[in-house]
Write a structure and sequence with these properties.
Blueprint (H helix, E strand, L loop, with lengths): L11 H4 L1 H11 L6 H5 L1 E3 L9 H11 L12 H13 L6 H14 L6 H4 L4 H7 L11 H15 L19 H8 L3 H4 L5 H10 L18 H9 L3 E3 L2 H8 L7 H22 L3 H14 L37 H4 L4 E9 L5 E9 L5 H9 L5 E8 L2 E9 L1
Helix pairs in contact: 5-6, 5-12, 8-9, 13-16, 15-16
Length: 399
């Protein structure tokens, strides 16, 4: 697996390093690995060829709605369904989980009472999730314990909406909502508060809880981490970080994953500011791209799969196809001693530039040879990334 740096209009150190470090200090909610933080950089936005200001607003217009909605249920029932889905969503398909909760509720909503939930059995959870194509991930014992804790927690409130609403029906202050949620073990035990943020995002679609939208923060899961790594927005800068990404024998501690998620949160927040979309919109866009197009095993760059058809209305390829640096990896570039990759872009001042990326193996002494072979006048040499014996040189020249 190769990682390539985005060619930014300005070096990261000059453009945004201090801003990101400041944001990390103010948003950090759990111990995170400083070594992991130092092993990654964040690509500055905008970079050359960046079209996020056009792409993201377009995506926001066509983003799919939830396949399974609880809006047809009574308000307090819908809230509990959303809470349950957020609480046990780890390591299971989101649509399958929502369907399982929906189908069980259609049969009888009595199972959603605090008393029932606080005594739910492992076998009942196993039956509810039976039919999942990855049975080893059902983990009924673990999920039943979470549901029992949810039941005890919900029993402390007259109604589930009182976790979020005052007696007058207005949305409680952010710190009060957060305090109420942190009384529940599953939300208190989530260092990055991913499940809490996911729940707040999902509840904010209800009219009575629309005020929660102002409290939304990034909810970073593996889909988003994968997307940002492939697109070159999150960059490994040393061997430790590269090993963390490519060596699957290395233990992924909670503190190291917390660091990666914090960096991804910064990227998402930066995209939100640049595109003038709220973080909930950007979060949903990245999540849908990660689970329908930029999937784990084989990215669907040309939108051939059924799950990617929602994009066909406005796009013929992945919306980030032109700026995705995962397209230029070692498997494509290592065929010859080096290969040139030309990317066209237009600068804000309408002056035309071309980015030339050269990758080759062997040693630094070949740098001058390659420059002579290319026979170009380079105005700048930028962004040298070293990974073992692979070197990537990016240069910008004008014509």
């Amino acid at each position: 697996m190769s990682l390539y740096e985005q060619i930014s209009l300005f070096p990261i150190e000059e453009n945004s390093k201090e801003k990101y470090e400041k944001r990390l200090c103010t948003t950090q909610i759990a111990h995170i690995s400083e070594k992991t933080l130092r092993g990654f950089n964040i690509s500055a936005i905008p970079f050359i060829g960046c079209n996020f200001d056009c792409v993201y607003p377009t995506l926001a217009e066509i983003i799919p709605k939830e396949k399974v909605s609880f809006c047809t249920f009574p308000f307090h029932i819908a809230i509990i369904c959303e809470i349950i889905c957020a609480a046990i969503c780890h390591q299971i398909n989101w649509d399958f989980l929502r369907s399982a909760v929906y189908n069980k509720t259609i049969l009888s909503d009595k199972w959603l009472s605090p008393r029932y939930l606080s005594n739910i059995s492992e076998s009942e959870v196993n039956i509810m999730l039976s039919g999942y194509d990855k049975p080893e991930r059902i983990r009924a014992n673990e999920r039943s314990k979470i549901l029992r804790d949810l039941g005890r927690w919900l029993g402390e409130y007259d109604a589930p909406d009182r976790i979020f609403l005052s007696g007058e029906g207005t949305v409680l202050k952010e710190q009060v909502v957060r305090s109420n949620l942190l009384k529940c073990m599953v939300f208190a035990g989530d260092p990055e508060e991913k499940k809490m943020q996911l729940l707040i995002q999902k509840l904010s679609v209800f009219d009575k809880l629309n005020g929660l939208r102002a409290y939304c923060q990034p909810a970073i899961d593996y889909h988003l981490v994968r997307v940002y790594l492939r697109r070159g927005l999150l960059i490994a800068t040393n061997k430790y970080a590269m090993d963390f990404l490519t060596n699957f024998e290395i233990e992924r501690k909670e503190s190291t994953m917390a660091a990666v998620r914090q960096l991804c949160s910064c990227i998402l927040s930066e995209i939100s500011g640049y595109t003038h979309l709220d973080m909930m919109n950007v979060n949903q866009i990245e999540w849908h791209i990660g689970r329908s197009v930029c999937v784990q095993d084989k990215p669907d760059c040309f939108l051939l799969s059924s799950s990617a058809q929602w994009l066909k209305e406005r796009f013929s390829v992945c919306p980030f196809f032109k700026t995705c640096l995962a397209r230029y990896n070692n498997r494509l570039l290592d065929v010859e001693c080096f290969r040139r990759i030309l990317v066209m872009s237009r600068m804000p001042e309408t002056r035309r530039y071309r980015i030339l990326t050269l990758q080759y193996r062997y040693c630094m002494k070949q740098k001058n040879i390659l420059l002579k072979i290319c026979n170009y006048r380079f105005s700048a040499i930028k962004n040298c990334v070293e990974s073992s014996k692979d070197f990537v040189y990016a240069a910008i020249y004008e014509w």
